[in-house]
Design goal:
Shape: globular
Oligomer: single chain
Helix content: under 10%
Radius of gyration: 18 Å
Number of helices: 1
Number of strands: 24
Length: 254
């Protein structure tokens, strides 16, 4: 699927300025925050620090107020949902039924974000040393991989073996688990952004959505109906748009 979508996006630049998506669903969603979905189509929302995992049949709920406000939820692995609490430098791991399987408060690093990695590890950025590293969930050991990164990170994404980030100057970078950093170019100004994989991303600017090819360093506008977009998520050809009262799903027109 990813190879076909990458081929579609790459060849599309030669023939059009817009990408056409077809709306395939609309559901009410009166929550504060939309965090994304997983490979089984579960949607993750939160309201007043209550985290919800919702599908057609069930709604699961997790609440933990001792760590402060939820600042990040990683839905990449539904067997290990990562819930990050930046205020108290803590995170919890939840299993598929939203049971708590791990709870950790960091004492040696000050995390700006946590992202899932392979081999029971988490990517982190430590604001004290300004370094990127890996935290092992089993041994509880830290491993720094980079030299100090002087430009603040606005957004980060991981695909297990790589961490990608965008800095305050909109530069795009990646790092692998051996510490090798690559510069991938720049993205245009944005208000919100998500990577779909290491080759492309979607971003919101002035209430309009765009697809951006990292390889081609070029943008295309996406035609959608929604306005006042609060958040969005893209996975396996499906674009989910979250507004004040609903979540709409789109897929690429074939």
């Amino acid at each position: 699927m990813k190879i076909l979508l990458l081929f579609f996006f790459t060849t599309f630049f030669a023939t059009a300025q817009n990408i056409d998506f077809e709306k395939v669903g609309v559901k009410p969603a009166k929550y504060d925050v939309f965090w994304g979905n997983d490979i089984y189509g579960n949607n993750y929302f939160s309201t007043s620090n209550n985290l919800y995992k919702i599908n057609e049949k069930d709604t699961l709920n997790y609440t933990n107020n001792k760590y402060g406000k939820i600042t990040g939820v990683e839905t990449f692995n539904m067997l290990q949902t990562v819930v990050f609490y930046k205020q108290n430098n803590a995170f919890v791991l939840l299993d598929a039924q939203f049971n708590e399987i791990n709870s950790t408060i960091f004492s040696e690093i000050n995390c700006e974000f946590l992202k899932p990695a392979s081999q029971n590890e988490l990517w982190f950025y430590d604001s004290l040393s300004q370094q990127i590293g890996l935290y092992n969930l089993n041994s509880k050991n830290y491993k720094f991989l980079s030299n100090p990164i002087n430009k603040a990170i606005k957004y980060a994404y991981s695909d297990y073996n790589y961490l990608f980030w965008i800095d305050v100057e909109n530069g795009i970078y990646s790092i692998n688990k051996f510490g090798k950093i690559a510069s991938l170019g720049k993205v245009k100004p944005f208000e919100k952004v998500i990577f779909s994989d290491k080759s492309d991303l979607f971003y919101l600017f002035d209430d309009k959505m765009y697809y951006y090819s990292v390889q081609n360093q070029a943008s295309m506008k996406i035609d959608i109906d929604e306005k006042m977009i609060k958040n969005f998520f893209y996975k396996d050809g499906i674009l989910s748009i979250f507004t004040d009262c609903q979540i709409s799903t789109y897929q690429i027109k074939k």
